[in-house]
Specification:
The chain has 8 helices and 8 strands. It is an alpha/beta fold and 254 residues long. Helix 3 links the parallel strand 1 and strand 2.
Length: 254
């Protein structure tokens, strides 16, 4: 374990990416700060996760405790802005992040909000080595930040229970994503700090699907996410040229 950031012996964690987000730890919950774009994105990804979980596990998505009894892993949880609302919906949440600073911020906010989340300063690889299993594994806005996508996906998939789900959100590698997610979001609109993303690390839907299917998971859904300028909000779309979410299921044993 490094002095400030947790890692396992074999990991897909990119140290530079971890350090970059660790520097923003104190501002994770500032909805008008450097994480403002993620706060605006949060409702659509939260709704997608809730609806996919409700459909798979036969729950009523309208109930406030619709995720009760489901063990969910949030990989790269940062300050916990997704883990907390999922816990409020009843999920047994485990949030992991290799940056100790992020976990400290997440724990502090959860305590202030009286929300129970099991936050750990560790990696997905360390949990997989410990044979941890989950009903749902989340890799939201993290695939584009790892060093080895195939290895990372395999690690995530290994923790999905039989009949469980893996849900990922990431950015497609297209000219459109370069124009909007990097030039537009980082340099023109300044929605996120410069250097947050590298276009060459973006992952196409086909690449992600192949990696998931190689691990024995079946792709059961995918949706694009676009920003509605008039409504000032993110929404689901058939357009997957930039942001997209994908859900895969591990088949039940025969």
């Amino acid at each position: 374990m490094a002095a400030r950031n947790a890692r396992s012996a074999a990991t897909s964690v990119d140290a530079r990416e971890v350090e970059q987000f660790a520097r923003l730890a104190s501002r994770w919950w500032d909805s008008k700060g450097p994480m403002a774009a993620l706060h605006k994105f949060n409702p659509v990804r939260l709704g997608y996760i809730r609806d996919q979980a409700a459909a798979r596990f036969h729950r009523d998505a309208k109930k406030l405790d619709c995720l009760k009894g489901l063990r969910i892993l949030d990989i790269g949880c940062g300050g916990g802005i997704l883990s907390e609302p999922l816990a409020r919906l009843g999920a047994d949440m485990v949030g992991v992040d290799p940056a100790t600073e992020n976990i400290e911020a997440a724990r502090a906010h959860a305590e202030q909000s009286s929300v129970e989340v099991d936050y750990r300063a560790t990696t997905a690889e360390a949990l997989a080595e410990a044979k941890e299993k989950f009903d749902i594994v989340l890799a939201m806005e993290v695939v584009e930040h790892v060093m080895d996508v195939k290895s990372f996906v395999a690690t995530c998939a290994s923790m999905v229970k039989l009949d469980g789900l893996l849900i990922a959100a990431t950015i497609n590698r297209t000219l459109k994503s370069f124009a909007l997610a990097i030039v537009g979001a980082e340099y023109v609109l300044r929605w996120v700090p410069r250097g947050t993303h590298r276009w060459d690390k973006f992952v196409t839907p086909v690449e992600l699907e192949i990696a998931l299917e190689a691990c024995g998971l079946n792709i059961i859904g995918e949706r694009g996410v676009i920003y509605n300028l008039l409504a000032d909000r993110w929404q689901l779309s058939s357009d997957m040229d930039v942001n997209y979410m994908l859900v895969a299921q591990r088949p039940a044993a025969k």
